[in-house]
Structures are given as structure tokens and as C-alpha cells.
Design brief:
By secondary structure, the chain is an alpha/beta fold. Helices cover 32% and strands 24% of the residues. Helix 3 (53-60) packs across helix 4 and helix 4 (80-94) runs parallel beside helix 5 (128-143). The protein starts with a strand and ends with a strand.
């Protein structure tokens, strides 16, 4: 498959790009900083801006799936995340791309029935803007009248940690986090990336949010 990864210079986008390459897929690393994108060995490079429809269209045309791994923790600009979702739903059909896989957030998963993690007062303030942006992007996807077949992968609400792939993770659809026998929810970046590439290959959660954890 041909997979374009927007935000491949980030730690999660990079993990997804490398996992896809390791499985033999053709990967295009898409972003604004060409030097950083070249760190993804074996990937093609496409310089594009998510706020420029035409550059984005050129970058993703001809691919089977686009992965969006976009965030902005530095400036806390939460609007870039839902704005990118809207842009991709508009641009992908004109580029001949029918599928979108989004690296989403875990803060909008329910901490208890009907209460999202980001709605609780103990949610870490330094992650709030990003989590709210990710939640808004999910709403954009769910409410869109679109021909794009999207999926949205949420990590555990708090414990997405650096680490290699183990292959022992579980996945499920819905708005509730996966927990282990101790009530804990965690996953490494390597396994998170593997779960997303699994979905790209198997297409089991079309037009749904799913989550992955141990």
C-alpha cells in the first residue's frame, strides 16, 4: 500500500511511518520541515503545509491511505488539529484518496460513564489544549457528511510512553479506555503505531474511534 504520513517528523507520526516501512509499505513522509522528514529512512519526502490545500493535495495524491499525526504543543494552538481534520476531509476526495487514519487523543475517552477525562478537574493542564483539539477533531469526523472512510485511534488517557513494539496490545472500538486487571491503561509508542498500521491493513474500524492498550 502507499501510505502518506502527515506529521512524520513527530514522535508518533515517525513511529507510524517506520512501522509501515518495516512491513513493506511505500511511505511518504509529509510535513513542513524537509530536514526532519529525511530522518525517516526509506520514505519518500513531500513538503506540504496543512493550511495550504494545493500543497497538501499534491503531497497525498496517488496514495491509498493518509495518516494524520498533527499537533502543536509548543504554541498550544488547539485549532490546528480540528482544522487539519476539516482540510483533509475536503482535500482527500479531490486527490483521489479514500481513506484517512487519524492519530488521536485519549483525553476524550470516558473516565467514568458520561464523563470524559478532559472534563475532570485533575486532568493535566499542560495537555488540556491539545486534548480539547483532538476531541474537536473527532467531532468533526463523526459529524461530517463525507465519502472519506476515516478511523481515529486514541491512546490511553495518560500513559502513552516511549518504547518498542511488543505485539501484546489489545484494541476495541468505542469511547471507553482499555484497562488491565489492575485497572491501568498504558501502551508504548511502538505498539500504538503497530495498532494503527494493523487498522490500515485490516480496515476493522471504519468511521469509528478505537483505542489500544495492554
Amino acid at each position: 500500500m502507499r501510505i502518506a504520513v502527515i506529521g512524520a517528523s513527530g514522535w508518533l507520526g515517525g513511529a507510524v511511518a517506520r512501522e509501515a516501512l518495516a512491513r513493506g509499505h511505500e511511505v511518504t513522509a509529509v510535513g513542513r520541515d524537509e530536514a526532519k522528514l529525511r530522518a525517516i529512512e526509506g520514505a519518500e519526502i513531500a513538503v506540504a503545509d496543512v493550511d495550504d490545500d494545493e500543497s497538501l493535495r499534491r503531497a497525498v495524491a496517488g496514495h491509498d491511505v493518509v495518516v494524520s499525526s498533527v499537533t502543536d504543543r509548543v504554541s498550544a494552538d488547539r485549532s490546528i488539529i480540528p482544522r487539519t481534520a476539516r482540510t483533509l476531509l475536503r482535500v482527500l476526495p479531490t486527490a483521489g484518496v479514500g481513506r484517512l487514519a487519524v492519530v488521536g487523543g485519549g483525553g476524550s475517552l470516558e473516565a467514568e460513564p458520561g464523563v470524559r477525562g478532559i472534563d475532570r478537574p485533575d486532568f493535566p493542564e499542560q495537555y488540556r489544549a491539545e486534548a480539547e483539539g483532538q476531541a474537536e477533531a473527532l467531532d468533526v469526523l463523526r459529524n461530517a457528511d463525507t465519502e472519506v472512510e476515516w478511523t481515529y485511534l486514541s491512546p490511553p488517557p495518560h500513559h502513552l510512553v516511549p518504547g518498542e513494539k511488543t505485539g501484546t496490545y489489545r484494541v476495541q472500538a468505542g469511547d471507553t479506555p482499555l484497562v488491565d486487571e489492575r485497572g491501568e491503561s498504558r501502551i508504548t509508542a511502538g505498539d500504538f503505531a503497530a495498532a494503527l498500521v494493523d487498522e490500515i491493513e485490516n480496515d476493522g474500524f471504519a468511521r469509528r474511534r478505537f483505542t489500544a492498550a495492554y
